[in-house]
Fold this protein.
Amino acid sequence: MKSIILAMALLFSFGAVAHPVSYKDATGIMSYNSPDMNELLVTYSFNFNYAAAVTYLRDSKSEFAIPRFNYLIKRWNNLDSQGNIYLSGGLGSEKFNDKKYGVRLAEFIADWEDRRYYTYFEHLNLSRDNDTNPMLPNQSYNHTKVRLGYAPFLADYNDLNVWTILQFEKHNDEKQIEATPFLRFFMKNVLWEVGAGFDGSTKFNFMVHL
């Protein structure tokens, strides 16, 4: 019983808000914002394995609207930690210069965290029919993200929790890897992050489950 209680505390405290699949009948709202991209993701979990979602993404003069399906492949609930592997796929449209084009999404996510440390890996592929956007010349757009986090102090679920996170991102075949330090704050069912890139750019993420 003690292990179950601790596992549920982990799920609801720092994992449930940000994960693409949460608990039965949970609704998640996630917003990711940077100078050149804005994304809104709304999810509804039918149970702890499956969730329906819609992604709205505005990036490089294009707007994407993509209904998608998220699936939890595996979850490890340990006494003081949790790990997850997810797959996601969707079909939608890209709007560019008042024209709409087909787009397909595939995403792989893996994470592991306890109350002190946090690791996250994500790889996203957008297969696009549009070849006219000069800012996104590749019809197959790839994005890889790695995050490493550390909690400098431990707090209860009802108190304000603070994490330091270092995020690495790589787009398509670019050799440059973008690094962004974040401060993550969460309390109960609300989580927000503020990041500042080494180039002076700022990022803000917001997540809540209902």
User: Anything to note?
Assistant: Residues 2-15 form the longest helix (14 residues). DSSP finds one helix and twelve strands in the chain. Residues 2-209 form a domain with the Porin fold (CATH 2.40.160.40). Helices lie at 2-15.
